[in-house]
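Dear H.,

Thanks for agreeing to be a second pair of eyes. The structure we're designing against is below in token form, covering all 216 positions.
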């Protein structure tokens, strides 16, 4: 049996967090490739809603998996995140990546608004390929209490796992303007899990940090 434990990340974990992100997704998303570890560090410090989590292999002390859960608890609807910077080789690449980024988060933004900003969004989940299929991914899903409606933009690889944890799944194709229609498409499984428990005492994880007290 693997000897894994979920812990909160600290700043020193961010390079490994990005390394696992890169290894697990292997260049599936333009904006992941372009924005890199610098942006991960910015998110760690700058975003009010984030919970950066990791799974440690207790036998070696190595961080083998990571997740970012965004938790909105009725404190007002935040603006949709925007991507900027100077990471691209030319203007057109930057514009394309910004469209992709915007389209990727469009469904989630609607859900945040419609839920009155009472929502848990699994923003990132990845397991180092050397440690996959040993339960680490499921541990990082299960840290989120069932008192929150939860959403995830699921990959093909994550879809079955999310389905077994109560998420359902229409397929979503991120739209881009006419001039980019010949480029590769970005798609995901737009998956939602309704609130499953009203019992906040038993369904809140030690690793998720609530920032205000408007939980339902
Ligand atoms: C998806 C991912 C997070 C799963 O993590 P994991 O630790 O390997 O998964 P677990 O061992 O906890 O999950 C077990 C279930 O996931 C499914 N699963 C795991 N890896 C899979 C793969 N490569 N292909 C299909 N299903 C897979 C298995 O069906 C398994 O279910 P079972 O044990 O009932 O058969 C991991 O494969 C990963 O990092 N993938 C690349 C990045 C990614 O797609 N992240 C999800 C973004 S939404």
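And this is the sequence the design step returned. I haven't edited it by hand at all.
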């Amino acid at each position: 049996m693997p000897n894994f434990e979920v812990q909160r990340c600290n700043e020193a974990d961010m390079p490994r967090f990005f390394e696992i992100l890169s290894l697990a997704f292997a260049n599936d998303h333009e904006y992941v490739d372009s924005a890199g570890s610098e942006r991960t560090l910015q998110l760690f410090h700058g975003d009010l809603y984030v919970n950066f989590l990791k799974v440690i292999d207790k036998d070696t002390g190595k961080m083998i998996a990571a997740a970012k859960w965004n938790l909105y608890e009725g404190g007002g609807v935040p603006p949709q995140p925007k991507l900027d910077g100077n990471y691209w080789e030319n203007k057109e690449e930057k514009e394309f990546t910004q469209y992709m980024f915007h389209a990727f988060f469009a469904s989630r933004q609607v859900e945040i608004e419609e839920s009155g900003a009472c929502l848990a969004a699994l923003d990132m989940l990845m397991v180092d390929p050397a440690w996959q299929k040993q339960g680490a991914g499921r541990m990082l899903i299960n840290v989120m209490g069932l008192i929150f409606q939860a959403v995830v933009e699921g990959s093909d690889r994550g879809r079955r796992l999310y389905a077994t944890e109560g998420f359902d799944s229409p397929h979503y194709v991120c739209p881009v303007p006419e001039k980019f229609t010949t480029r590769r498409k970005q798609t995901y499984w737009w998956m939602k899990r309704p609130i499953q428990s009203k019992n906040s005492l038993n369904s809140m994880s030690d690793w998720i940090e609530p920032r205000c007290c408007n939980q339902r």
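Two observations from my side: The mean pLDDT is 87. The radius of gyration is 17 Å.

Warmly,
E.
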